[in-house]
Design brief:
The protein is of the alpha/beta class and about 140 residues long. It has one domain: Rossmann fold, CATH 3.40.50. Helix content is about 50%, strand content about 15%. It is built from seven helices and six strands; from the N terminus they run βααβααβαβαββα. A six-stranded mixed β-sheet has the order 3-2-1-4-6-5, with helices on both faces. Strand 5 and strand 6 form a beta hairpin. It is globular, with a radius of gyration of 14 Å. About 35% of the residues are buried.
Length: about 140
């Protein structure tokens, strides 16, 4: 199974917050899914962390996370799309399409979750994804 984790999930993971952190840790340790990403998403992650959490994480923590995540993920070049009301979300949707992701996991209720599906990629909330995969990811 291939998944794309929205940048908000990666931020929560870096801040070691709850379910998002546990999901990524589980995915990387158990090799249950392939995570798809792109260098553009890593740039967005750095930008969000610098703007919203400037003094929370040390740059070396962020750099280490990005290096490890990039090595673990399947890196793709996002397709150009214009499907979301939020232009920043189009990169994430483009990653999902280019990587032929089964799921795009997010907590973005306003824009991404409203789309529900793009091509064959299901757009699901983090909690719904956890419930769904917990049945067979033991």
């Amino acid at each position: 199974m291939r998944i794309v984790l929205d940048t908000n999930i990666l931020v929560a993971t870096l801040l070691k917050k709850g379910t998002a952190y546990r999901l990524l840790q589980y995915a990387l340790k158990k090799d249950q899914f392939d995570i798809v990403s792109a260098s553009k998403q890593m740039e967005e992650l750095k930008s969000v962390l610098n703007k919203k959490f400037p003094n929370v994480l040390h740059k070396s923590e962020v750099g280490t996370f990005i290096n490890l995540f990039t090595q673990a993920a399947i890196m793709v070049r996002p397709q150009r799309v214009n499907l979301s009301p939020d232009p920043d979300d189009n990169i994430i949707l483009g990653i999902a399409l280019a990587g032929k992701a089964d799921y795009l996991v997010t907590t973005d209720k306003a824009d991404l979750l409203a789309l529900k599906k793009v091509n064959t990629t299901k757009i699901v909330h983090l909690s719904a994804f956890i419930k769904q995969v917990s049945r067979y990811c033991r």
